[in-house]
Automatic annotation (TrEMBL):
It comes from Bradyrhizobium daqingense. Pfam families: CTP_transf_3 (PF02348). One of its GO terms (molecular function) is N-acylneuraminate cytidylyltransferase activity. The keyword rRNA processing does not apply. The keyword Transferase applies. The lineage of its organism: Bacteria, Pseudomonadati, Pseudomonadota, Alphaproteobacteria, Hyphomicrobiales. Keywords: Nucleotidyltransferase, Transferase. This is N-acylneuraminate cytidylyltransferase/CMP-N,N'-diacetyllegionaminic acid synthase. PANTHER family: HAD SUPERFAMILY MEMBERS CMAS AND KDSC, N-ACYLNEURAMINATE CYTIDYLYLTRANSFERASE-RELATED. InterPro entries: CMP-NeuNAc_synthase, Cytidylyl_trans, Nucleotide-diphossugar_trans.
Amino acid sequence: MRLFCTMCARGGSKGVAGKNGRVLLGKPLLAWSIAQARETGLFATIAFSSDSDALLDAAMDAGADLAVKRPDEMASDTAPKIPAIRHCLEQAMARTGQTPDIFVDLDVTSPLRLASDIVGAVELLRSSGARSVITGAAARRSPYFNLVEERRDGTVGLSKIADPPIVRRQDSPRCFDMNASIYVWNVAAFLEDSRVFYPDTRLFEMPEERSVDIDSEIDFALVELLLRKQQAQQGTSS
């Protein structure tokens, strides 16, 4: 079974300037995800997409197989990510002459994942037969009990109300925060209908300490701290 890996990173960022190429513990942020993809041993091709030539060069230096220039219309602040992922996948297929059965998209702003998380998410797709797998961590707030949303008139209420009502928190469905770390798709299903959620989508659970997505300077500092801790623990166990 052939697998591809895609990664998509814009040159611009409002939350953290130049974050995708910013140095994190001695190497560009994007290099962490490329190294994790390589470590799995799963992928025939790792394709990196960006509108930035500098990021494309950095990705190739970090071990990516293909540099895919993203069209400008897919690189604005308001552009959705799915078309960019599809463009990267189709370019990788065209340039390699190969069609994978499964592909994985890794968000370069989530460097705390382990290679084993990628392997686990892929195995869940294979074993379940689902069209897609996402990743997430257990939610801190339940929409059935303490997550509220504001209505148009300014009043607030619970985000989700069960029928019949759920009176004990432990009886409510498990809820998760998507961590935007790993997305796995069946290629045929994605090319037919490119989206994240299908009726059979599954979730691969990751711990909170590997689920921080960098979207602010505070996130960057927290990821650096957690990576240092992660590396220290790996050094101790080796």
